[in-house]
Amino acid sequence: MVTITPSHISNVNEIRIMGNPISAVLDNTFNGKSSCTVLMLPWNEIHSLGSLAFNGLTNLQELHLDHNHLMALPDGVFDPIPKLTMLKLQNNRLTDLPAFLFSELGDLSSLDISDNLITTIQSNTLYGLDSLVTLKLANNKIHTLEPSSLAFAPNMTQLSLADNELTTMAWTVFAGENYTADGGKPSALAMKVSGNPFVCTDVMCWMKDGWVTWWDGDDYAPECTNGVWASMSLSCQSKRTNSYFKIMLSC
Asked: At residue 236, does pLDDT exceed 50?
């Protein structure tokens, strides 16, 4: 097993260890590196993290763990780094996100977990993410969003769930103390949900009439092709191009 040797790491503002055959990050690897604000560990072969792998990084703001072989994240692994604002976990092999995994990350604004193997977002997975603005969950295997699973990110303005296995999406994913059925809703939320096998039911009616706009890296806006929710196609036409992004809703 190839690991990082703590004695070889200086107490600097930015640590970059990329493109190595590192397979694990052990407990206390970065202990004493409190000056570090950016830790970049992408494009290695990391498949496991100790629950105290980031102990000592008390001022860390950016953590890049993308393009590794992570299959699971231990409970509490992010607890020692509460000042984190950016977390990149894309392009791993994660199948599950434990409840309360991010509960100590109240300053986190950007979270990318795209290109993994996640199937379910649990009700308490995002608990504590009060400052989250951008959440990327594209290209997983997500078929279930539990009620209130997105309720703990009240400041989110960009959400990508594209290319998953969702067949429906009820407004109750936002339900909680922040959002209610009689008017509470994400303000200025832009969503990308293309590439899901949606089947229209009445629980999806919240998707129209100003609840959200459509985000695809461009400026997308929803447009009902026939003005009627039942038996319609919900089309989103780019304002910058003539391309169309459609969710076919077969009722």
From this structure: no
